[in-house]
């Protein structure tokens, strides 16, 4: 049981590349923290720094009240689950789990009871004598988890542990990881690029981009109040619609009340649009030409082009082409392609950002 | 391809049998010749069927030796060859796996220059550096010794390169998992890398054992005592006789005996050998 605190953590590679540019995160005891971001954002590097597999250039990493910057990975009291599992191919499942304990000089009887307990939790009991290559992907994943559990560490570290599994198994394992973490109540840090995994697993969600933390907080808070356009478009699928507020069409509807005067970018989530001819008071209405329809059963995504062409808004990732708007409507009834529709969103559903997308403006 | 019918299959098999005959006949001839009497071969009247001298000839070969030129029994020579081949194979594997481990997993000053230095020695086989090597071995008083036979042949760039390539395919995460599991460099090497290299080591052992067994030039140079000579040298010396008849049955028996250890090694290690060469799963 331990807090993990990162204080102004930095990582600069010998070539001068700044992978981590000063990160401050505080993960409370027993909390599940998810680091999410696009590839290359430094989330894995940060996790590996917590594990002790990468050196720390600046700042402090504190696990359970002890600064561990110079401490060997084995002495940090952490356990890590790797993306490719990193099971020892020549050792049986039992030995894979027991290896770390043996290196610590633990008594064989204690090792046996711990491994058997972990095998029971993970339903690996029948496979203890098998080699990793005789296991399926999901089973290997469990063994990797088991290797972490038997250590009874202060902190679990997960490095995209589900990305090698197929979609169905991934969802099942996601739920299992969450249940397991609740049950063991061990502080965990989990790295993923999958925003769905991030939303569903996290107590604390850390959205990273370009070696920096964009936003930290409860997943739903982040979803409802993204701090930057990056977070707005990264969290949520399909991504939030982002538009420049400059075109007259939008400007006139927003009025000058509250923060909308200095707002440069307007964001609206696809599900916050309603197809209606009535303009809401204080909200925003757009005219769209339907260009594509995606039906997924319970809901339908309508891709529309705005009538008036306007300036490009920079918002990686999942950026929409300028002028394209996604509308998410329940059910399978959708307008026809080529049809002209009016969509509206109420004032409360609008997100306003400064022109550079770095600041959220509360109206 | 697999299900070929009738005549085509017989033709294919016929051709294969011809191939086998071409390869196997000289070996058969050697075995037959080793069971004849000396005079019969010298007369050019050797039968293609085995003669009746099998036990006598092999007893003489292994325990007594020829009556002329080199008087050492082949048993001693085989022992010498065996010691030399084993020392070379085991020594090469041990040295190269350790140096490859250092080059792949450690960051030390001049790592790459050292690697290239090892690489360059590929261009310097024994034949090229034979005089300086002889001088060193002589200065170290290792002429006519097992150390002198094996040591100069032990350092191996090829095996180092092979292990380096293999180590680079081992995922980094295994090393990282070992570090988290509290295994230091030695434990990682011993507990993880060595077991994973098992098939590579077996393949290398087969190749190096045969290489060592078949050494000719080096043992010829540094062994002068009859009781230190290897079987390859022995055969050669038996054939050249100045004033007596070459004892062909004994020579052939020696040749047959010289074939046995490599064949034995290949047969025993075949499964591992093939796996070591083709295995991709890590």
Keywords:
heterodimer, A: 363 residues, alpha+beta, B: 282 residues, mainly alpha, 14 helices, globular
Low-confidence stretches of chain B: none
Spans of chain A with pLDDT under 50 lasting ≥5 residues? 314-319
Count all strands of chain A and give the number. 19
Biggest sheet of chain A, in brief? Answer: 6 strands, mixed
Largest sheet of chain B: none
* N-end to C-end Cα span of chain A: 41 Å
Percent range of helical residues of chain B: over 70%
Rg of chain A, Å, rounded: 24 Å
Number of strands of chain B: 0
| Biggest chain pair interface | A-B, 25 and 18 residues
Helix content of chain A: 25-40%
Shape of chain A: elongated
Indicate the multimeric state. Answer: heterodimer
Radius of gyration of chain B: 24 Å
Count of individual helical segments of chain A: 9
Strand-and-helix sequence of chain B, N→C?
Answer: HHHHHHHHHHHHHH
Task: Explain what you see.
- The complex is a heterodimer of chains A (363) and B (282).
- Chain A has 363 residues and is an alpha+beta fold.
- Chain A has helices spanning 43-51, 93-103, 108-121, 137-150, 167-184, 195-201, 219-224, 229-234, 248-254; strands at 4-12, 18-27, 32-36, 58-63, 66-67, 78-81, 155-159, 187-192, 204-209, 212-217, 241-244, 265-268, 274-275, 284-295, 299-306, 324-330, 340-345, 351-353, 360-361.
- Chain A has a six-stranded mixed sheet, sandwiched between helices. Chain A has a five-stranded antiparallel sheet with strand order 13-17-14-15-16.
- Chain A is elongated, with a radius of gyration of 24 Å.
- The model of chain A is unreliable at 314-319 (pLDDT under 50).
- With 282 residues, chain B is mainly alpha-helical.
- Helices cover 71% and strands 0% of the residues of chain B.
- Chain B has 14 helices and no strands.
- In chain B, helix 1 (6-33) packs across helix 14 (248-278) and helix 4 crosses helix 8.
- The model of chain B has no long low-confidence stretch (mean pLDDT 86).
């Amino acid at each position: 049981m331990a807090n993990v605190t990162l204080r102004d953590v930095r990582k600069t590679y010998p070539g001068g590349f700044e992978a981590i540019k000063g990160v401050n995160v505080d993960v409370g005891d027993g909390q599940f923290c998810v680091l999410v971001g696009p590839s290359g954002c430094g989330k894995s590097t940060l996790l590996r720094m917590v594990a002790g597999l990468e050196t720390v250039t600046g700042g402090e990493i504190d696990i359970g009240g002890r600064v561990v910057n110079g401490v060997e990975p084995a002495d940090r009291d952490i356990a890590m689950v790797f993306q490719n599992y990193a099971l020892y191919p020549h050792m049986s499942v039992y030995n894979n789990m027991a290896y770390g304990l043996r290196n610590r000089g633990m008594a064989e009887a204690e090792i046996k009871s711990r491994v058997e307990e972990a095998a029971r939790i993970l339903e690996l009991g029948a496979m203890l004598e098998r080699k990793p290559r005789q296991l399926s992907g999901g089973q290997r994943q469990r063994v990797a988890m088991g290797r972490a559990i038997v250590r009874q560490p202060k902190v679990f570290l997960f490095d995209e542990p589900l990305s090698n599994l197929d979609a169905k198994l991934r969802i099942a394992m996601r739920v299992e990881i969450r249940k397991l973490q609740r049950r063991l109540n061990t502080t965990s840090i989990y790295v993923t690029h999958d925003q769905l995994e991030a939303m569903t697993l996290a107590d604390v969600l850390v959205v990273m981009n370009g070696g920096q933390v964009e936003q930290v907080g409860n997943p739903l808070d982040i979803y409802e109040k993204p701090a930057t356009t990056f977070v707005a478009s990264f969290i949520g699928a399909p991504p939030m619609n982002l538009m420049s507020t400059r075109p007259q069409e939008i400007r006139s509807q927003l009025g000058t009340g509250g923060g909308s005067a200095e707002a440069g970018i307007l964001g609206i989530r696809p599900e916050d649009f309603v197809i209606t001819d009535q303009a809401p008071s204080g909200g925003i209405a757009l005219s769209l030409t339907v260009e594509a329809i995606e039906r997924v059963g319970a809901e339908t995504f309508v891709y529309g082009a705005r009538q008036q062409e306007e300036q490009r808004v920079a918002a990686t990732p999942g950026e929409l082409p300028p002028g394209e708007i996604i509308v998410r409507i329940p059910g399978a009834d959708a307008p026809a392609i080529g049809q002209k529709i009016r969509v509206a969103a109420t004032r409360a559903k609008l997100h306003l950002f400064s022109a550079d997308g770095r600041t959220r403006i509360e109206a | 391809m697999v299900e070929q019918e009738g005549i085509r299959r017989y033709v294919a098999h016929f051709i294969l049998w011809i191939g086998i005959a071409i390869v196997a006949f000289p070996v058969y001839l050697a075995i037959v010749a080793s069971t004849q009497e000396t005079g019969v071969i010298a007369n050019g009247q050797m039968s293609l069927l085995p003669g009746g001298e099998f036990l006598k000839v092999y007893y003489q070969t292994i325990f007594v030796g020829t009556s002329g030129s080199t008087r050492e029994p082949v048993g001693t020579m085989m022992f010498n060859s065996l010691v030399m081949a084993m020392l070379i194979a085991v020594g090469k594997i041990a040295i190269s796996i350790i140096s490859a481990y250092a080059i792949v997993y450690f960051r030390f000053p001049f790592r790459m220059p050292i690697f290239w230095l090892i690489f360059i020695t590929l261009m310097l086989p024994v034949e090229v550096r034979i005089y300086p090597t002889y001088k060193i071995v002589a200065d170290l008083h290792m002429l006519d010794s097992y150390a002198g036979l094996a040591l100069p042949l032990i350092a191996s760039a090829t095996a180092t390169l092979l292990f380096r390539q293999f180590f680079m395919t081992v995922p980094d995460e295994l090393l990282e998992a070992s570090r988290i599991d509290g295994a230091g460099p030695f434990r990682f090497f011993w507990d993880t890398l060595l077991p994973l290299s098992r098939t590579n080591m077996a393949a290398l052992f087969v190749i190096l054992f045969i290489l060592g067994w078949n050494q000719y030039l080096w043992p010829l140079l540094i062994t002068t005592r009859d009781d230190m000579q290897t079987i390859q040298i022995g055969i050669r010396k038996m054939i050249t006789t100045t004033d007596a008849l070459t004892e062909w049955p004994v020579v052939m028996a020696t040749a047959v005996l010289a074939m046995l250890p490599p064949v034995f090694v290949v047969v025993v290690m075949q499964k591992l050998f093939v796996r070591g060469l083709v295995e991709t799963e890590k």
